[in-house]
Specification:
By secondary structure, the chain is of the alpha/beta class. It has a single domain, classed as Class I glutamine amidotransferase (GATase) domain (Rossmann fold). It contains 6 helices and 9 strands, in the order βαβββββαβααββαα. The strands form 2 sheets. It has a 7-stranded mixed sheet, with helices on both faces. Strands 3-4 form a two-stranded antiparallel ribbon.
Length: 192
Amino acid sequence: MVEKDVLLLLTDKWADWEASYAIAEVNSVPHYSVKTIALDKESKSSIGGLRAEIDFLIEEYTDLSNLALVILPGGFSWQDNRYEEIARFIKHVLDQNIPIAAICGATIFLGSHGLLDQVKHTGDSFEFFEAQDEYNGATNFLEAQAIRDKNIITANETAAVEFAYEIYKLLEIDEPKELEAWYDNFKNGFVR
């Protein structure tokens, strides 16, 4: 079986905890390999001070035949940059019916490029979406921890566990019963 790429799209000051559950489990499954992708090859520093090396440049990742999913963690730079090249890449990924998963500020980025207008979605606050000129998805916004609709998973900043759970279900990394047990353990803990 060929390993499929799950790309972690990084910007400076990315929120390391928001994708940590997801990438740890996905990378442990033999048929997926988590790789990093960015606009340049400079290592990206997370909010927590972790430095991540970059495996792929967006401009070079043109063959999507081996791509299973793109994960966009939140972070401080989404609000300061339009990232047109990232938006074009994500549009291309979605046009190929490849799923994406965004959390926190990355959801606002998607909304600001009109990528959430036709799907149910969530994020940190509706007001953040409303402030984006190109956002026309108000009727599809829902107050929720995480939502999966069509090929898009969105989550708010407090939903790292729910975000991972939706990714696991999408990628079918284990049997549904095992995934439910994982979710219960990480959402509710061992001691109750």
